[in-house]
Amino acid sequence: MPAKAKWVIVVLILFILITQLYILYFIKYSNQNLSLHNFNLYIPGNLINFIFSLVLISGVIIYSIKNQKDNNYKALITYTFITSLLLLTCFLTLYVEIPQSKIYIFEQTLSKSIVGFLFALFQFVQFMFIVYVWLRIFTEKNLIFLRVLFNSVIIVLLLLLLAYFYIEIEMKNYSEKLDAGSGDNIAVVLGAAVWSGNQPSPTLASRIDKAAKLYNKGIVNKILLTGSNAPGELTEAEVAFNYIINKDVDTTDIMLENQTTSTTGQIRFIKNNLSISGRYAQIFIISDQYHLVRIREISRFYNLRVIVAASELQLSFEAKLYNKIRECIALSIFWCFSL
User: Fold this and answer.
1) Which domain holds residue 153?
2) What separation in angstroms does the CA of 270 have from each of 108, 110, 222, 295?
3) What pLDDT, in 10s, does the model give residues 270-281?
4) Does residue 12 fall inside a structural domain?
5) Listing from the earlier edge strand, what are the strands of the sheet with 185-189?
6) Residue 217: DSSP 8-state
7) Count of CB atoms situated within 10 Å of the CB of 131
């Protein structure tokens, strides 16, 4: 292959990789019904996307310079094509609605699980691309595919460990100093599971108890109960309302939101309906302590100023570990894709 043709291919690959990063940012903000005018490179998720792309682009450049006599660029072209195809599929999920199903996977609907799988597959193939390029820079071709696969799994585990220790550090630094300040304040109770007989789960009950406590202390004077429902049950917000009316809270100070089904959806509702109105001096979001870190990250993505408050839910060691692992997976997914 002539040297000129080779560098045309390299430049084209670099252009596609840069375009991929832009499209990924567009998808992330579109997932949350935001425009790129809200873009902030310095929030963790966007910075992580940038670093992954920078490492990949740098690797392609160094590989091309170091291996000028190597005219075989089939692997680079193949990885570029596959990542582009997967990203295009992810892009189409913004506009093509996957049929709803009653099947749930890890407490997520089948449609959301499919979308999440597509994004995760894109990210994993990008990791494989990164590993391949840098292995070719420093090593020979022996067992290259197995090395790429193994090291890509290592990167996934390192990302999850980063999220885990990030949550651990944030939780240890969490201190609750709640002050009424001046003006109207509102406590937003994030929805949680409802048990049979339309009874709040201990998780939901502890969040409601916290809101009632803040209300009775005069720290907040309004309460918003959020959460939709699973089929055959009252909504999480309605169950929370039936529970909180026995907590010395004036029902005229309670509002219900019963359409959202996720943390991101609830924070989007807060942004669009509470923050923009400017009616409330302070917005308190109430959830469990292990959940607060992701709430802060999502709020930061929305450029939303909130105060987080932890419920007083007591969990066993096993339950704490399970929830932390689940949160580190959810935080990693949000960092990478804003899902």
Assistant:
1) 3-172
2) 22, 26, 14, 12
3) 999 998 878 888
4) yes
5) 254-257, 222-226, 185-189, 282-287, 307-310
6) T
7) 23
